[in-house]
Amino acid sequence: MSQNNEDLEEKKLLGSGGYAFAKLTENEEIKANLGVPHLFLANVGRLAEDRFLRYYCNKCGKEHDGCPLLVYEVPNEEVAENVILVEKGEYKCRNCNNTIAQYRKFSQ
Ligand SMILES: [Zn+2]
Fold it and tell me: How far is the CA of 28 from the centre of ligand 1 (A)?
């Protein structure tokens, strides 16, 4: 799938331990929006490092350039009938290891 024709827009994505500024496609923006005026990093899930511009860590109390550290695993584990936990990940501050946001991706 080519994204060449899509406009990337800089957006603020909220997390539990801070927030990040990243460039999103329109589809990603729709995915991150739960009908409230904020976008959540947890709903975007895994995003390429080069999409991030900077992030803010609540624990450091300041912004850092670049992307937070992403740690993820792909458990493919059945957590309920016909529901598979496909991927779970965590964005962490590169400076202090504080969790910026977590996400879970389920089949269905
Ligand atoms: Zn930090």
Answer: 26
Full-prediction pTM beyond 0.85?
Answer: yes
Cβ(52)–Cβ(21) under 8 Å? yes
Nearest to 61 by CA among 108, 96, 25, 13: 96
Strand partners, 13: 20, 39
- Residue-wise pLDDT for 52-82, tens only, equals 999 999 999 999 999 999 999 999 999 999 9
* Ion ligand 1: protein residues whose beta carbon lies under 5 Å: 57, 59-60, 93, 95-96, 98
Distance from the CA of 17 to the center of ligand 1, in angstroms? 9
Express each pLDDT in 74-84 by its tens digit: 999 999 999 99
- Rounded CA gap, 68 and 103, in Å? 14
